[in-house]
Design brief:
Layout lengths: L1 E5 L4 H19 L3 E5 L11 H9 L4 E3 L10 H7 L18 E6 L2 E9 L11 H12 L5 E7 L3 H10 L6 E5 L9 E2 L5 E3 L6 E2 L8 H10 L12 E11 L2 E11 L5
Parallel strand pairs: 1-2, 2-3, 5-6, 6-7, 7-9
Antiparallel strand pairs: 1-11, 4-5, 8-9, 10-11, 11-12
This protein binds fe (ii) ion.
Fe (ii) ion (FE2) binds next to loops.
């Protein structure tokens, strides 16, 4: 099976990037399933029913979230209504929604898991490593391949997770930091990993935010309202082929809006 994972869709520019860029990528790579992180889809913070539907309409089958999961009113209900919308699995028990699902892809059972990091995130969710052990233990023998979106700040935590899951999952991709890293690879055990897939949003920005607002916050140390940046978009992604539960090929995508528009 071939999976296309689209990096954090940031605000309106990110949704435009999906709308304008994803159909061509789907045509070119012919993925069997598209997964996207949508935690910044609504104005950069969280997701709404409308923005979720917009992502689905662009061709995405499963949407993952992260630290901004609860930012918009109504996400609890949305999680209850939409089985293909995931929030991090290691939120403490009792959190609305679900952190993983099993989806049939080319007749194979793919387990998709969303996790969130604990380092430098400003929150204290349950241990993502042990949460993953519990999910894999529960699903042992019942799934054919496993894909993990690990939404985390620290490069170290994301690399550590790749080692922890080595040989146990087909892919563990990092999200949240919005800058694509140059470390996509496949281990000897068949686990594809990358520290951060990047961002789907405005290119001329500070991780999606208008540079003027981001700079003002840095320079004044005051809470400045963040707006999505204007200008051309980029669409960051990875495309990963999986056979017998192991990654067999993995490539990064960094698509930029055509400049002749
Ligand atoms: Fe995030």
């Amino acid at each position: 099976m071939k999976l296309l994972f689209v990096a954090d869709v940031a605000g309106k520019p990110g949704r435009r990037a999906l709308r304008e860029g994803l159909p061509g990528l789907i045509q070119e790579h012919a993925p069997d399933l598209v997964i996207a992180n949508g935690e910044n889809a609504a104005g950069g913070l969280g997701i709404t029913a409308e923005t979720y539907q917009e992502i689905v309409r662009a061709g995405v089958g499963v949407v993952t979230l992260g630290n901004h999961t609860w930012d918009k009113r109504g996400t609890e209900e949305l999680l209850d209504q939409e089985p293909f919308l995931l929030r991090p699995a290691n939120y403490p028990p009792g959190a609305p929604g679900r952190g993983w699902l099993v989806v049939s892809v080319t007749g194979r059972r793919l387990l998709v898991v969303n996790l969130i990091g604990r380092a430098l995130m400003g929150i204290s969710p349950d241990c993502p490593f042990r949460t993953m052990d519990a999910i894999l233990g529960e699903q042992a023998g019942q799934v054919d391949a496993v894909f993990v979106d690990f939404h985390a700040e620290a490069t170290s935590e994301k690399q550590a997770m790749a080692y922890y899951l080595d040989g146990r999952v087909a892919a563990v991709v990092g999200t949240h930091t919005h800058v694509q890293t140059a470390d996509l690879g496949i281990s000897a055990q068949g686990t594809a990993s990358i520290t951060d897939v990047g961002m789907t949003g405005p290119t001329n920005s500070v991780i999606g935010v208008d540079p003027k607002a981001a700079l003002e916050r840095f320079l004044t140390q005051r809470p400045v309202r963040f707006e999505s940046a204007a200008g051309p978009w980029q669409l960051d992604a990875v495309v990963i082929s999986i056979e017998e539960g192991k990654a067999t090929s993995a490539d990064v995508i960094h698509l930029v809006e055509a400049s002749d528009r």
